[in-house]
Amino acid sequence: MDADREEKITRQHCLLAHHQLPGAELLAGYAKQLKYRDETNREGHAAKVYFNALFGMDFTRSKECALNAALNYGYSILLSLMNREISANGFLTQLEFTTTICLIPSILPAISWSRFGLWWTPWYMICVLRNLAKKKR
Question: Which of 91, 85, 94, 97 is nearest to 130 (CA)?
Fold first, then answer.
């Protein structure tokens, strides 16, 4: 699971660096500082830096607002699409649930990217999942 955390923070770093937003280097450092079970809460610190860089210093994920509702909606659609692909390829989502959840953290930045007009990213991930499923057959 620590590899998933590192992957998520690395992808967040890449997004911020690509758009030349503040905090990118800080995220790169957090990814390298991860310890077993994230005892130093690097993932939490990275999330704060990431979302503040994208949406402003007043933004928090716990705030009830349209932006959080949109992010939650995007996450749920992405999870639903992933579960549909898993089912379509003959796997039971009830048994493969942890697989879906494990994939989500590394592609969560795809939802945030939509702010920058990159709506294709979740669809690209579905294509990747389809290809992975075909290779398993």
Answer: 85
Q: CA–CA separation, 133 vs 137, rounded Å? A: 7
Spatial contact of 43 and 8, defined as CB atoms under 8 Å apart: yes
* Residue that the structure tokens 């005892």 belong to: 39
Q: From the CA atom positions of the chain, what is the Rg in Å? A: 16
Residue 83 has pLDDT above 50, yes or no: yes
Q: Which two tokens stand for residue 3?
A: 């590899």
CB 17 within 8 A of CB 29: no
Local structure of residue 41 (DSSP, 8 states): -
pLDDT digits (tens, 9 = 90+) for 30-72: 999 988 888 999 999 999 999 999 888 998 989 998 888 888 8
